[in-house]
Amino acid sequence: MRGRGGIAAFRQRCGARGPGKPTVGAGALRRYDALVPATVIVGAQWGDEGKGKIVDLLAQESDLVCRYQGGPNAGHTIVVGDETYKIRQIPSGIVGGVASAIGAGCVVDPAVLIGELDDLEARGHTTRGLVFVSGNAHLIMPWHVALDGARERKLGNLQIGTTRRGIGPAYADKATRIGIRVQDLLDPKILRQKVELAAGEKNIWLERVYGLERFAAEEVVDATLRHAERLAPYVADTSLLVDHALRDGKRVLFEGAQGTLLDLDHGTYPFVTSSSPIAAGAAVSFGIGPQRIDEVLGVSKAYVTRVGEGPFPSEITGAAQERVRTLGGEFGTVTGRERRCGWLDLVALRFAVRVNGVTSLALTKLDVLSEFAEIPVCVRYRLPDGTETVDFPAHQSDFHHCAPVFEVLRGWECALDGDALPPNADAYVGFVSAALGVPVSLVGTGAGREAVLTLDAHAA
Ligand code: IMP
Fold first, then answer.
1. What was the pLDDT predicted at 164?
2. How far is the CA of 94 from the centre of ligand 1 (A)?
3. Residue 6 has what pLDDT?
4. Counting C-beta atoms within 10 Å of the first and last residue's C-beta, which end of the chain has fewer, N or C?
5. Is 48 a catalytic residue?
6. Structural contact between residues 263 and 76, judged by C-beta atoms closer than 8 angstroms
7. 89 near 334, Cβ under 8 Å?
8. Residue 256 near residue 273 (C-beta atoms within 8 A)
9. DSSP letter, residue 269
10. Which residue is closest in CA terms to ligand 1's atom 8?
11. Nearest CA to 54 among 318, 255, 313, 203?
């Protein structure tokens, strides 16, 4: 047990976990002796794992923080003293004055981004020369937001439960190659051409499929040109930026916006977002080779939450659901929606460790469980054919119809305000680490920035 703070020590410890790691060769050990230059912080559940706080903490020791996917569908809450920041698009490192980049794999709502820049500047933060937006990121246009809402309404009971921020439609246009990119903001002629082309097509959908009003292309062009003026100084080649930073031995932190199970390819499709929150997404978004990523820190709550629709095996039944929600303040940062709450799901977490290559885990909000005398943990799924598995089902029907098998651990029933965890909380963390085969390096013990314990006792 290491006590509070000590993030520099965390970085060194990422590799210095020594015992029981025979596959780490001498070269790797040498590398681990230095500060780890490139770390991905990835949500290991369905998003909202408390990544913002962990990023904020590690950002204090970083030179560059990079957001690699998503858009204003994410909401990171950072508490610094009396100030609360709710940031959706800019990586949260900016609050601590750390250079922050938005990668090509992101979608950007220009009005939201400008609102964030204005708010940060009004609170005394510098953004020019510190915030960089990839010219290859795509813009969320007003019709994307309209189409997102319209499609959800039309789907009725089958809706995905999106954040209605235009995320899916913006990524869809990217894939069909009629998207408008951030770099288009730098060329009014191209911008006008692209907006007119896209508006023509989107208006047909809006009118004929959803019975909604058309957008006047000229008005959208004018608004976008105004955005262009404000955002032009922030447009950058973020691939080159990261490449140079890594070559110069700088410490670069990559943060995903959503979580593993919301990944478009590997998540619980169709109840997913439209991009790649898994760790490999960082390399794709920033245009760097995957071998340049040194560490993958998976962030998981000590329990699970999910917003939106879709199966959720360890969802809590009965009064404990509301209790966890209230104790954990489980309401969406962006939408204010109630989050569904479940007991920790080790099957899903084992999957996250696998698909991300997680090298250590941060377990957040452990304090939320402090009031419970008994804490169930989902250790296996029982499949419809009666067999049980510790591995995440590859087929959606198995996942949709599986039942959780719980092991019940003893609670600690006291506050987590010391420099060490009480024995039963320590046992809980140790149980998770042993089941997953990865060390738990950080534990969240409260809302404040300082309420994080760094651990070295739970090497898997
Ligand atoms: P979209 O990203 O708005 O398209 O929403 C797709 C799915 O991802 C929905 O189930 C959302 O609830 C979920 N989702 C998107 N962003 C977040 C997030 O930041 N936290 C949790 N769930 C999210």
1. 96
2. 23
3. 39
4. N
5. yes
6. no
7. no
8. no
9. T
10. 273
11. 255
Looking from the CA of residue 337, the nearest atom of ligand 1 is 12
Mean pLDDT across the chain, nearest whole number? 90
36 in Cβ contact with 240 (< 8 Å): no
Q: Which residues line ligand 1 (CB under 6 A)?
A: 46-48, 73-74, 160-163, 165, 167-168, 258, 262, 271, 273-274, 307-308
Among 56, 63, 76, 391, the active-site one is 76
DSSP 206: I
- Is residue 384 scored above 90 in pLDDT? yes
Compute the distance from residue 163 Cα to the ligand 1 centre, in Å.
Answer: 6
Q: Are 345 and 314 in contact (CB under 8 A)?
A: yes
Report how far ligand 1's centroid is from the alpha carbon of 308 (Å).
7
Q: How far is CA 55 from CA 66, 108, 285, in A?
A: 10, 20, 18
Q: Mind listing the pLDDT tens digit for each residue in 296-350?
A: 999 999 999 999 888 999 999 999 999 999 999 999 877 788 999 999 999 999 9
Tokens of 283: 């390399």
Q: How far, in Å, from the CA of 340 to the mean position of ligand 1?
A: 13
| 398 catalytic residue (yes or no) | no
Ligand 1, atom 19: closest residue by C-alpha: 74
Tell me the pLDDT tens digit for each residue of 125-136: 999 999 999 999
* 239 residue type, one letter: S
What tokens appear for 239 in the block? 């691939």
Q: What is the pLDDT of residue 456?
A: 66
Q: Closest ligand 1 atom, CA of 75?
A: 19
Flag whether pLDDT at 142 surpasses 80: yes
Q: Which CA distances in Å does 427 have to 209, 289, 363?
A: 56, 38, 13
SS3 148: helix
Which residue has the CA at smallest separation from atom 5 of ligand 1? 162
Model confidence, pTM: 0.90
Burial of 338 (0-12, 13-18, 19+ CB in 10 A): middle
Distance CA 232, CA 228 (A): 6
Mean pLDDT of 84-102: 91
Ligand 1 atom with least separation from CA of 333: 19
**Angle at Cα 358 formed by Cα 310 and Cα 70, nearest 5°?**
50
**E-state strands within 174-303:** 235-236, 252-259, 295-301
For a pocket test of ligand 1, which of 89, 258, 271 has the largest count of ligand atoms closer than 8 A to its C-beta?
A: 258
* CA-based end-to-end distance of the chain: 14
Percent of the chain with pLDDT over 90: 79
